[in-house]
Amino acid sequence: MAMATVNLRAVTSWVGIARLFAVVLSCVAFSLVASTGEYKTPYGTWCMFTWCFCFAVTLVVLMLELLELYPALPISWDDFTSAFSMLAALMVFTTSVVYPSTSIGSPCSSHCAQKAVATTASCLCFLAYALEVGLTRAKPGDISSFLSTVPGLLKVFEVYVACLIFSLLDSYALEAGLQWCVAVYSICFIVTFLIIIFTIGRCLAYIPCPLEKMLVGYNALALVMYITATILWPLYSFKDTKRPNPCNSECVWNKHLGVTFLTIFNLIAYLVDLVYSTRMVFIRTPS
């Protein structure tokens, strides 16, 4: 039976300190928002979920590393923590933008101090997770933990942006061009998500083919598919249409504009991913 030992470096190293700050700041954010009672809109619920989810998972990570229990888990721990810190940074960043823009009016009508402090805590929490990502990122030439490399971190970014795209999709069933774009988002999301899951679960080694070259080929294909989506989505979404007035956050035109920008973000991500993956596989740095 495995004995738990205490490893104080889990909370005294720079990575551990960044995680402690993330736990405290996310707790402050959701506690203050909960005290206002004004979080039952879809956006408010998303923000509360983000803070609570990041708080809970980071606390579990800290406890497992403090007690050195993580080696017993059947996963690649470094890949898991790298992927989670990147995901948490993206989620908290989104929340830090969404919460004040949807919950703090101009002028503010109620619980202004709590909302302002919660927003500040959320922004600082994002910086804590971003610091963790920077501290745990693999050094050039080190591929022992794939998800801590630039291509690995980009995989998490690509999946998260695809999720944001899905949340904005509306009125695409009548145009074949828009249906193709949704197929692009879905196919690339599924394949990239499976790469992340297989990496964390240590399953990629069982694939009977040159994995690195396969990933380069997939990145090239995903880039071509996203190029078509970047062209077709705005072409069919805004053809013969003008922005209605007024047009709030639930306006279809605004949602289509959001999908357009997110598609461009993912296009750039897959391009950078392809460049880095190609350099890692085909361009060897002389030792």
TrEMBL record:
InterPro entries: Marvel, MYADM-like
Keywords: Membrane, Repeat, Transmembrane, Transmembrane helix
Membrane-related topology note: Multi-pass membrane protein
Residue span, MARVEL domain: 10-141, 146-282
A Pfam cross-reference name: MARVEL
UniProt subcellular location: Membrane
GO cellular component, one term: membrane
Segments traversing the membrane: 12-37, 43-67, 79-101, 113-131, 152-170, 182-204, 216-236, 256-276
Broad class of the protein's primary localization: membrane
Domain of life, source organism: Eukaryota
Similarity comment: Belongs to the MAL family.
Protein name stated in the entry: MYADM protein
Organism from which the protein derives: Cepphus grylle
